[in-house]
User: Fold N-acetyl-gamma-glutamyl-phosphate reductase from Pseudohongiella nitratireducens.
Amino acid sequence: MIKAGIIGATGYTGVELMRLLAPRKDVSIEVVTSRELSGTPVADVFPNLRGYLDVVFTEPDTETLAACDVVFYATPHTVAMNTASELLARGVRVIDLSADFRLQDQAVWEAWYKTAHTCPELIDQAVYGLPEVNHESITDAKLIAVPGCYPTAVQLGYLPLLEAGLIDTSSLIADCKSGVSGAGRKAAVGSLLCESSESMKAYAVAGHRHLPEIRQGLTKFSGKDVGLTFIPHLTPMIRGIHATLYASPIAEVSQEQLQALFESRYADSPFVDVLPAGSEPATRNVRGSNRCQIAVHYLPESQKIVVLSVIDNLVKGASGQAVQNMNLMFGLTETAGLDVVALLP
Ligand SMILES: NC(=O)C1=CN([C@@H]2O[C@H](COP(=O)(O)OP(=O)(O)OC[C@H]3O[C@@H](n4cnc5c(N)ncnc54)[C@H](OP(=O)(O)O)[C@@H]3O)[C@@H](O)[C@H]2O)C=CC1
Ligand SMILES: CC(=O)N[C@@H](CCC(=O)OP(=O)(O)O)C(=O)O
Assistant:
């Protein structure tokens, strides 16, 4: 039985971790933290978990958390970097859903997150938790940096093209849309129903903190510098990321060749579903599931490749991917507890 702790269990990703882990017979959720709701039973706040999880929120406390085999940080950026090293020193495996250990260049991280990194010595030890790329190293990892939601959708979409060296890397364009749960559960005017429904807008056009994370991954896949324009948009849905990715081939390509490339690259990836040629994936078809659905199109008239990639930001974009990493770290079946069909409608 794997003993698990969740720091920040009242946020959207924390609640999603509880939803995915509570029914499992091979995992026991021992500690769930919330500073605000310490002392309150989980089911009083989240009645969907009644009968599945009989624990009480507690204050985050290293001593209590150290009794776990694995601790998930479902906390805002800059929390994990202050206490993860104590847990690791006590033999606990750490899976961080925030960005504290995602960027390998400390200076770049500090520039984008606008603060000094308090635990730079762990940056090199952290494994970037994208199993479709780092499957082997995740198995041996003690500390996982779970990728961000946009970076998951964008990297999985561009990966086969970059590894195969098929596209011009100097001017990639990632046009991305997110549901409002991506902004977290904290009260914020922009997340109010009256502000976010019946409307759609781009944001962080001048620079979003996922830009360096995506660029870091794409550069590794291609072995070349990558020029990337990444524009996120807020859309009036709760869950979902839709990424439309543009690329120019450097030599002649065909739809059949691209389709075969994507299908063979993801043949052994249980959570990447390459759709038939001509498909137009929708976020609703991955809602609540850990799947990334991808369609690749070649447009002969403009000579552009367009990849469409959709995920649920809270599942493959965060908590589901975190559980996928846990499964690999503990030698379990990669799909354990994640074989869930998307919710429709
Ligand atoms: N929402 C999404 O789609 C995605 C989120 N992420 C990342 O996952 C992390 C969590 O996101 P999300 O669930 O949306 O966030 P929320 O804002 O919904 O929840 C944050 C949680 O962290 C706790 N918390 C806040 N500050 C601290 C602190 N200093 N120490 C301990 N606990 C703290 C809060 O509880 P309390 O204050 O009561 O302690 C709360 O439970 C973030 O880093 C986010 O960037 C990644 C990918 C997608
Ligand atoms: C819609 C929305 O606000 N999305 C968030 C990104 C989601 C997320 O939390 O990603 P990180 O883990 O990297 O922070 C944003 O743009 O800030």
Remarks:
- The CA atoms of residues 41 and 313 lie 27 Å apart.
- The longest helix spans residues 149-163.
- Residues 2-125 form a domain with the Rossmann fold fold (CATH 3.40.50.720).
- Residues 7-14, 34-37, 60, 74-77, 79, 97-98, 148-149, 181-182, 184-186, 313-314, 317-318 surround NDP (ligand 1) (CB under 6 Å).
